[in-house]
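#lab-general

N.A. 3:47 PM
ok so I finally got the sequence cleaned up, no stray characters, all 455 residues accounted for. can someone with queue access submit it? mine expired

B.Y. 3:52 PM
send it over

N.A. 3:53 PM
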Amino acid sequence: MSAAAWTASLARRLWPRRPAPARHGHFGLFVRYYLIVVLIYAVVVVGGISAWLCITDENSRAYGEAQLRGTHYLIEQRYLDTPREDWPALGRELSEHFAYPVRVAPLAELRDTLTEREWLRLQRGDVVMESEDEAYTYQRLPGTDQAVALGDFDDVMVQGVPWSDLDLIDSIVILAMYFLAIALPLYFLVYRFWRDLRRLRTTAEALSAGELDARAPEVTTQLVNPLGHALNHMAGQVQQVLESQRILAQAVAHEIRTPLARMRFGLEMLEQAGGDEERAHLREGLETDIQRLEHLAAHSVAYARIGRMIGIEREPVPVTALLADLADVFEPEPPLMLSFDGGGVDCLPANREALELALRNLIANALRHARTRVAVSVAHAGDGYALQVDDDGEGVPEADRERVFQPFAQLRKHPEGFGLGLALVRVIAEKHGGHASVADSPLGGAGFRIELPAQ
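B.Y. 4:20 PM
back already:
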């Protein structure tokens, strides 16, 4: 077995692949939401209709009575013009021409059917609709103990339509349309949400498995779309942080090899040194290497701390005070001259500590490469601000203007530098939502520029 195959086999045994969680389809989710929505709709509709019918019950009966008043009048006239012994035959005749039964009922039969108020109205000769189920109307025949009864209106028959008396058919059709009207848009919405959330879940699982370049595809649901953008932004930030940490770890491991080797060699020489002068010289070399390692650790910690920040807190930074503090830090020896220009900018939104660290790195870098002059300036730039550090040194070749911002990249080796200063400048600028770049300076050397947004 080859070494690569053995390593892969060992990895599978030590870190077995976890089974993927069960993925439930969207139909079950749709059914659950559908039942909830239908239940809520049913409660609201039934409750609302019941309440409305209770409120409008009296008006509804009055409206029905008014509609049938003319019909009762015509039927009443037919009965009054017909001998009493022929009333049953007249009722059968009229029923054939109406969609509901027509008959004559004794008043005593209706006494228990009607309320007290309805009974009194019937005695006066009014058209009365039964309040219990509103299926019958009655009107007393003048001068008799009989009343014309129309109905049952719920048992209407239509000739030629055999199922027209089945109210259940109407109810089923209405309910089917009602449920379908809920199901179609709800299914469409649930499916879109389920599809987009499944895509985000797949992306999140890929990220958790270490696939840091995984990104969520564009989703179409407006409510989920911001979540997809936020997930992609977070994934990009995490990938950037982890990548910078990886580069930092590799570079630090590389940088400490040289001073450690010199220190080990120095210790061996120190044991063999014969005179005090030689011992002092070797001890001085060890102290120099220790200081270099301390500087490397400090710069690496600063780079890692800034690099792992997902966001950065901002506050209004007074430009005049910021430049004054920087002027106190740097006191270049002649012939070097260091100048500051606030450009009329009062304040800019930034993290004071991080921005000052970036400018200190740029100024220190410029002072190392300048011949006679370094100029620091702040100015408005479009909707944001520009901070520029110019020098009159040799400048940066165009081919190297991106490489100089990489961690531990040095165009010219310097005993006090590690190549982290400019990398830290770019990280700080990007954490502010800005950008760091280098171009030719008006002074003839390099012009390093930090662009920051206004907000």
